Structures are given as structure tokens and as C-alpha cells.
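Example (one chain per record):
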Amino acid sequence: MTTLSRTGAMGRAPTTARTTIDSVNRFKPLHTSAALYAPITPPPPPPPPSSSSSTPLTSSPPPPRSNVSSRPTKVNHKPLPSVPNTLPILLTSVILALLSWTGFTIYATNKEKLSSSIFKSVLTTVKTSPEISSLFSSSTPVVLKRETWLGGQPRVQGAVNMMQGRVDLAFQIHPQGEQDRTATVYFTSIRESKHSPFEIVRFVVVEDGTGKVVSLLESGGFRSIDVESGDIV
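Predicted structure:
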């Protein structure tokens, strides 16, 4: 009997303990769960507009900003400087350039004619001709008249163009020491075609003072020009 009572007491002990724990838990405050599931308080609404601002809001754009200062700016009005007239200087420079180019061209072409073989042959024939000595009535040798504006060179007019088949020369001579007594030599020779020989059509000396003419074409018997040497034959 005693054994059963002890067994029954031992068997009821756990039930009583569980009941006691449940009772304790039932009355225990649930502060942990309340803290976890507490609602979030929303922020307070914005304050209403101030009553002192009675101007209604409009959608008009703000006035444009200007870069011009509102303060008056002092402007100094100065007269423009006078521009010098460069037209006379420009015209003078152009004229001088043209004159220089023209003078250089004349000098170069004249130098070329002086150095041609046909001119040297004509001049030698004139200097050695007794008819020219009789024309000046002087035994002094005949020389070329030199021009100061050409740098002391004789002036030879005309052209020497062997390729086109035309030689036309004119120059002045005078007895040595007598520059006032001058005569002009005219020499012209042409050929009809490239393979034709040159034909001398004029070879005369005209005294400038008296107008007396001496034809070296008739007295010398010249008829043509040797193309290779440039001598008159």
C-alpha cells in the first residue's frame, strides 16, 4: 500500500510542476513581444504656411536675370585715329617696280644682241670698210656709240632670231673721239623656210647729220649669212 502511494505521488509530481510553470507564464508580462511588434509612429505633418505670407503662389516664371549692371557706366568717347593714305606709296612702288623690270629686260636683251655672232660679224665689216672711212672723212677708227643710261653699253635695236629666220639690227657708230658725228647702221636678213639660206636684203650706213647713205650690200657683195658661224658671206 505504501508502495502504491509513493508511486502515485511520484507520478503526480510532474503534472503539478507543469501546471505551476504554466500559471507563472500566464501572468508573466509580455514586454519582449510588445517591443518587437510595436507600431512605428509616423513623422508629424509639416507646419501650415505662415499667415503673414498672404501673396498667392503663381506659376509665372521668374524674371530673367540681366548681366547689365543697374549702376550707370561711364563711357569715354575718344576720336578714332586717322588712317594714313597709303595709295600714293603703293602707286609709287608699283611704278618703280615696273620701271625696274622694264629696264632690266631692255638691258638683258641688249646684252644678248651685243654678244651674238651675227652682230660681231656686221660690226667687223663696218669697221674695216673703206667706204665708212670716206663717209666720215676721217682716218680714225670707227667705234660704237655708248649710252649712259645702259651703263656705258652700246644700244642695239631690233632682234636676232635665227630660229624664226629673221635678223634685224640697227646701231650707231662714230669716229673715235668725235661723238657728235654719228651714223646709223641698218642690217636685215631673212630666209623663207627653215632649210632655205638667209638672204641679206639691207646693209646700209646712214650719216645722221647729212643723211648720206652708203650701201655695203652692193660694194661688199654680201649675199647671205653662214648659220653655223654667224658670218656674213
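Caption: Residues 1-17 have pLDDT under 50 and may be disordered.
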